[in-house]
Design goal:
Blueprint: H1 6-17, E1 23-25, H2 33-48, E2 53-56, H3 59-64, E3 76-77, E4 87-89, H4 102-113, E5 131-136, H5 140-143, H6 145-151, H7 155-170, E6 175-180, H8 183-189, E7 199-202, H9 209-218, E8 221-223, H10 228-241, E9 246-250, E10 271-273
Parallel strand pairs: 1-2, 1-4, 2-3, 5-6, 5-8, 6-7, 8-9, 9-10
């Protein structure tokens, strides 16, 4: 018979105390903004159903919260405000159709995201209907070995397949506009996106991640990589443009996680790249991989 240790006893005692009426969604400090939004979405859906649920506000969330113009303030709680009796719910509610419904997502977008400064069209790059915005995640997905082995894949092969899907669904592409947390790498390696007479442009150095988000939401035609920041741009673009929106995303999300490699966050209405040349494998390291901030 195992003798309970101090952590066991503490956990047992807290489980008795934490039975108050409020639930706090315990957001990880490691989450980027895309992951944070899933917690805020859950809090919004729970509150709409009459439940007293809020999400823990992390440092990442606090940086983005002002861009929602007060619309998300009631969805979050700061750590000093967490009460002893508050229930704590861990986990990340990412699965489309299981952790959240399309209706809950659209309600959150309509109430919180789309009317806010976060999605302000004046912060977006001006786009023509036949322009395609391409979102390339670099940063820690490539510079941190643990994340690289989990998330990285052949960007060129994916983008070739994704642009082919865009042309199949939406016709000729007039311009490809790239937003990324690794614009230097993109400028050095993605010049081929101008093949076939397409114009190629990149987000300017003075644009912020908020500007990138607004650009994604403003795009009728969008290609994202395996990043939740990009997924949220896709959700916003789909809601804003409806049937006129064409979003392309990879089936792959990550290796070595319990739910498997397949992305579970994707809207079923999107066009999905199921596989790429060589498969969803980690490419060899490159001297061009540099650290970069995530959103």
């Amino acid at each position: 018979m195992r003798v309970p240790n101090l952590p066991d006893l503490k956990a047992a005692a807290l489980s008795v105390v934490r039975r108050g009426p409020r639930t706090v969604l315990w957001t990880s400090d490691l989450f980027g903004f895309g992951n944070v939004l899933y917690g805020w979405l859950r809090a919004h859906a729970r509150q709409a159903a009459g439940d007293d649920t809020v999400a823990l506000l992390t440092a990442t969330g606090a940086r983005w919260l002002p861009l929602l113009d007060g619309r998300a303030d009631a969805l979050v709680v700061r750590r000093p405000e967490v009460g002893l009796t508050d229930r704590r719910e861990p986990g990340a509610p990412f699965v489309f159709g299981e952790d959240f419904t399309r209706g809950q997502l659209e309600s959150f977008l309509d109430d919180v995201v789309l009317p806010s400064s976060l999605s302000d069209p004046t912060a977006a790059t001006l786009l023509h209907p036949d322009d395609v915005v391409v979102v390339v995640r670099r940063g820690d997905y490539w510079s941190v070995p643990e994340f690289r082995s989990r998330y990285a894949f052949d960007t060129d092969s994916y983008l070739r397949a994704a642009l082919a899907l865009q042309e199949e669904a939406g016709g000729p592409i007039g311009r490809v506009h790239v937003v990324s947390d690794g614009l230097g790498w993109c400028r050095a390696h993605l010049g081929w996106l101008a093949d076939g007479g397409r114009r190629l442009t990149f987000a300017t150095a003075d644009q912020t991640p908020r500007d990138h988000f607004a650009t994604m939401v403003g795009a009728r035609r969008l290609v994202v990589t395996n990043t939740t920041f990009g997924y949220w741009g896709g959700y916003g673009a789909t809601r804003r443009h409806g049937e006129g929106s064409i979003v392309v995303a990879p089936r792959f999300h990550a290796r070595g996680i319990p739910r498997g490699e397949r992305a579970v966050n994707l809207d079923p209405r999107w066009s999905i790249v199921e596989t790429i040349a060589g498969g969803w494998v980690e490419p060899p390291p490159s001297p061009d991989d540099r650290p970069g901030p995530g959103p």
